[in-house]
Write a structure and sequence with these properties.
Helix content of chain A: over 70%
Oligomer: heterotrimer
Structural class of chain B: alpha/beta
Radius of gyration of chain B: 21 Å
Strand order of the largest sheet of chain A: 1-4
Largest interface: A-C, 48 and 46 residues
CATH architecture of the largest domain in chain B: 3-Layer(aba) Sandwich
CATH topology of the largest domain in chain B: Rossmann fold
Helix content of chain B: 40-55%
CATH superfamily of the largest domain in chain B: Response regulator
Order of helices and strands of chain A: HHHHHHEEEHHHHEHHHH
Number of helices of chain A: 14
Chains: A mainly alpha, B alpha/beta, C mainly alpha
Largest sheet of chain B: 5 strands, parallel
Shape of chain A: globular
Shape of chain B: globular
CATH class of the largest domain in chain B: Alpha Beta
Number of helices of chain B: 12
Chain lengths: 314, 379, 293
């Protein structure tokens, strides 16, 4: 809990340091990506089930919110939970057949699901605006306060993200979390112990989709524009990378992974055309030298450095 | 690489000298181009052209004694990135105007930012909805798709090929073209018999063409950018399709002829005048701009300038025009831009007004046919 | 629906499918020897095409010489990839391996983009491009090349895996790595072999398809994905099942585009794949596995 309060404090005070510059805008996306990474981490890190189609759920949330508000004039606060429930229900329904699959078959099926959703965004032109996107999505507002600037959005998004972190931390340390880890280690053993593994996996899949959908709605209302290209296979892979680089099964790790992968392109921009090579190379080096992810690798690194320092002193 | 270094140092040097010579700070112009990613065929020539023309302007002493400085970012064709970078240009770099983005989707995403922050945006994308309805801070230089569609339909109508099949790519460019093709067909008395699409990364379109072969279409109109249309041309040749093939301005570059080879012969397409600059009559008002652009591009990059690069060239020149009229703040530049009249650029002759932020007329396009691996103007 | 249209759809689908099959077998070979889904497989397909172009244009080699050079160079790339990225991995969990191959594919794609630019390039066909009519449908000579080379490679593969010592050793690794190690098979060497074979196969697929589809630094992504699907339908077998998987995928796409909707053709193919997986979770040809506790 202390760790969470310290983290929340740090997040809430960050804007004072950055003073509303461009980096604020990037940090808004770090928040959205953190939510997504946590959603996927629940599935991958805790339940041990891979998904290569989470960008689809993210996109569904964004498009449902976008279409309901921009085309049908709904209140965003109403559209968002409805979108989340619909996406959650959809995930729950397809979870049963899909999670029967294992390993690379599951990877393939989720990948296929993501691609189908992406194609639907592209082809239902009347509804979604097709490949050129959907514009005119309103910002979220509370009373007369409209979330239309980076600083306001920062606080909006991060309150959602912090709540997500808090809830998932609780979940991970609860009975459900322990049952999940049991399923991760050995599904058969977990079943023998009386865990309804199948239902549990499907529930987590649905929860994970629901979180992604909320992140999608938030994305739509901050960007005020969505287009299918943001929800393709590449983004699913990027999410997966965030989770693994951050550290499987660690909520704070998901934050670190999301932050690193969102901020990295900003630092690599100076390298111009070489950025893609550096990006690919870094990804490989990270996995080679920090196989447990940032959340375990960085403390290890410090420990090693300290040891060396200590040895020198002695 | 060495070339780049030298370029960089000479840029730094000229900047340094300029700073010493004039007390006035350079005027910063932002640019968002999709230099990498699926729309790189647009972004790369655009960035090159913008850099080139700003170099040339500064070499000639700048505008009213002040140098221009280009801050260009790569959006990789991604709307999210485009919005972030637009914010960066406005907040961190403090530019007075933004050129780009390259694609319609990105432009639509960036428009709310430009409107809110009150920075003029000159989009290089073709979608009609960018400036229709008119938005106070948004202009565009690329010819509307509607004009290109009109050019083809006009020809078809005159040659009595009124039943057509359309085959469009499922990305922003293709879907915008498809929308226009469907919207304008009735006006020209044209019936669309079949409406098919293909994916931007597809490698075989014989299925779609076989289906079209089975219909009674008198012509095929394909809307896409390289390499898809070149594949379609090859597939059509394989299937022995006899009906004429029309393409969009998305493939009006030598690259298309190179890719499609033999299969390109006889294909007709609407194109900006830059393709046929050397054969235009001297009386053409655009000729001077076109020849300058083609020559400079050849000198700078040892490559042929295309009309995509021309969009960025036009945007910079429009800004230069506004700054020449004494504007150096975003608001003043916007007001001056709106007063632009009969500026003969690469894309056509621009006339902006408070009701018109696209500014081009029907004369922006010519219809060309590919004959013996070269372009011939079709009347 | 006319017969010649149907024939055309099927023929187009089969030739595209043959390419998916070749790429898919590349996936399977590595998977069976190592348990890795090599997401960089598509990049070797791209390397095949781009390197052929490089040898043709930069070094002015004739086509018959450029092709083996390109295959050799891509194979070296595959070898380096295994030695530099896969072998040094300290915790080779499946998910880490997935990320590292994704990183590798980004790296290879980026290097190719810097080396050869972003343009798409055409490659001349092996033997002319005058269409050949087959009962109302037409194909190109290159399609025959593709089908013939696929058959040869699949046959060679079968021979290697069932009639040579090193092929049998590799199969042993696929069944049980530890047991294979215990009977004296150098497992690491087999892993290296698997990368060499599959990068060579990937590049051959890239070369034979390039005259039809043209090539660019980013063609590997889509082809790799389709090849992966083919391998999954075939139950990750490195033989006929994956070939059937590839052909099935190709034909489904082609029929979907022609008969139902061109916009949804990939979706149709994927929906059918999902249905197959739902009904037969162990792949179209796989036997149900009992789980070891």
């Amino acid at each position: 809990m202390l760790k969470f309060l310290a983290f929340a404090g740090m997040i809430l005070l960050a804007p004072l340091y950055f003073k509303g510059g461009y980096l604020m805008n990037v940090l808004v996306f770090v928040g959205i990506h953190t939510m997504l990474a946590i959603g996927l981490n629940l599935l991958l890190g805790y339940a041990g089930q891979i998904s290569l189609g989470h960008a689809g759920f993210f996109g569904l949330g964004a498009y449902l919110s976008g279409v309901l508000t921009a085309t049908y004039g709904w209140n965003p606060w109403l559209a968002m939970p409805l979108a989340a429930l619909m996406v959650g229900a959809l995930a729950f329904a397809i979870g049963f057949p899909i999670l029967k699959l294992k390993g690379h078959y599951l990877a393939m099926a989720t990948l296929g699901m993501g691609i189908i959703i992406y194609i639907v965004f592209n082809e239902t032109v009347e509804l979604t605006g097709g490949p050129s996107g959907l514009s005119g999505i309103p910002n979220l507002a509370v009373g007369s306060l409209t979330f239309d600037s980076d600083v306001k959005n920062y606080y909006l998004i991060w309150s959602f993200t912090l709540v997500t972190i808090l809830l998932t931390l609780n979940l991970a340390n609860s009975r459900v979390g322990r049952a999940l880890r049991a399923v991760h280690d050995s599904e058969v053993a977990a079943r023998v112990m009386g865990v309804n593994a199948r239902l549990l996996k499907v529930q987590i899949f649905a929860l994970s989709a629901l979180i992604s959908s909320i992140a999608g709605s938030l994305y739509a209302h901050t960007m005020t524009f969505v287009s299918p290209a943001s929800f393709g296979f590449n983004f699913s892979v990027e999410l997966l990378t965030m989770v693994v680089i951050g550290g499987l099964g660690s909520i704070y790790g998901s934050f670190l992974g999301a932050a690193l992968l969102t901020l990295l392109p900003e630092f690599l921009r100076a390298a111009q055309d070489y950025d893609i090579i550096i990006y690919g190379g870094l990804l490989m080096l990270m996995v080679m030298f920090m196989p447990g992810g940032l959340v375990r690798g960085v403390p290890d690194l410090f420990r090693k450095l300290l040891k060396k320092g200590g040895a020198n002193h002695a | 690489m060495r070339f780049r270094c030298i370029q960089f140092f000479s840029a730094v040097l000229t900047l340094f000298v300029a700073q010493a010579a004039f007390a006035a700070a350079p005027i910063k112009i932002g640019a968002l181009f999709a230099v990498t990613g699926p729309a790189a065929f647009l972004g790369e020539p655009e960035r090159n052209s913008a850099k080139m023309v700003i170099d040339e302007i500064n070499k000639a002493g700048g505008v009213k004694g002040r140098k221009l400085e280009l801050v260009a970012y790569d959006t990789a064709g991604d709307a999210t990135k485009a919005v972030q970078l637009a914010t960066k240009l406005i907040k961190d770099d403090k530019v007075v105007a933004i050129i780009g983005p390259s694609t319609t989707g990105e432009s639509m995403a960036v428009i709310p930012v430009a409107e809110k922050e009150q920075i003029p945006l000159i989009s290089c994308a073709a979608g009609s909805k960018i400036t229709d309805p008119v938005k106070k801070w948004v202009f565009k230089t690329a010819q509307n798709d509607a004009l290109a569609v009109g050019k083809i339909f006009d020809y078809l109508q005159r040659h009595k090929q009124t039943s057509v099949a359309i085959l469009t790519v499922s990305d922003g460019f293709g879907s915008s073209g498809r929308e226009q093709l469907k919207a304008q067909a009735a006006k020209f008395g044209i019936t669309i018999l079949s409406d098919d699409t293909y994916g931007p990364k597809d490698t075989d379109m014989t299925s779609q063409l076989t289906k079209i072969r089975g219909s009674k279409a008198q012509a095929i109109i394909c809307w896409g950018t390289n390499p898809g249309p070149a594949l379609i041309a090859k597939n059509a040749r394989q299937l022995g399709l006899k009906i004429p093939l029309y393409m969009s301005h998305g493939v009006s570059s030598k690259k298309f002829i190179e890719l499609a080879g033999e299969a390109a012969e006889g294909i007709r397409l609407p194109s900006g005048k830059v393709l046929v600059a050397d054969v235009l009559p001297n009386s053409d008002s655009q000729k001077k701009s076109l020849m300058a652009f083609v020559k400079d591009y050849q000198n700078h990059y040892k490559a042929e300038g295309d009309h995509f690069g021309g969009h960025a060239w036009d945007a910079v020149m429009l800004l230069k025009g506004a700054i020449e009229h004494g504007a150096d703040s975003p608001a003043a530049i916007r007001d001056q831009l709106e007063k632009t009249s009969s500026f003969a650029g690469i894309g056509g002759t621009f006339n902006y007004s408070s009701q018109e932020h696209a500014g081009l007329g029907k004369d922006a396009f010519v219809l060309v046919e590919i004959k013996n691996k070269d372009w011939v103007i079709v009347k | 629906m006319q017969f010649d249209q149907l024939l055309q759809y099927t023929l187009s689908g089969l030739s595209t499918g043959a390419i998916y099959a070749l790429i898919g077998i590349g996936f399977s070979i590595i998977y069976n020897a190592t348990g890795i889904i090599n997401f960089a497989q598509g990049e070797f397909v791209m390397l095949g095409g781009m390197l052929t172009l490089f040898f043709l244009e930069a070094l002015k080699l004739p086509l018959w010489a450029a092709i083996p050079c390109a295959v050799a160079a891509s194979t070296v790339a595959g070898l380096l990839f295994e030695r530099l990225a896969i072998r040094p991995l300290r915790q080779p969990t499946p998910i880490n391996l997935v990320i590292i191959t994704i990183g590798g594919s980004i790296l290879i794609r980026g290097l190719s983009m810097l080396l050869w630019g972003k343009d798409t390039h055409a490659i001349p066909p092996f033997s002319g491009d005058d269409p050949i009519a087959i009962g109302g449908a037409t194909i190109l000579p290159q399609h025959l090349w593709i089908l013939a080379i696929t058959v040869i490679i699949v046959a060679a593969n079968r021979f290697y895996f069932y009639h040579t010592i090193s092929g049998k050793a590799m199969r042993a690794c696929a069944y049980n790595r530890r047991a294979a190690g215990l009977v004296g098979i150098d497992v690491r060497r087999m892993v290296l072999f698997s990368f060499i074979i599959s990068s060579a196969m990937g590049s051959i697929a890239g070369i034979i398809v390039a005259p039809l589809t043209m090539t660019a630094y980013d063609v590997g992504v889509m082809l790799g994905l389709k090849g992966f699907c083919a391998a999954i339908i075939g139950g990750m077998s490195s033989g006929l099942a994956t070939v059937v998987g590839g052909l099935l995928l190709g034909v489904l796409e082609s029929l979907g585009a022609g008969l139902i909707s061109s916009g949804y053709k990939d979706a149709i193919a994927f929906i059918i794949l999902l249905l197959i997986l739902f009904i037969r979770p162990q792949g179209l040809f796989g036997k149900a596995e009992s789980e070891r506790v």
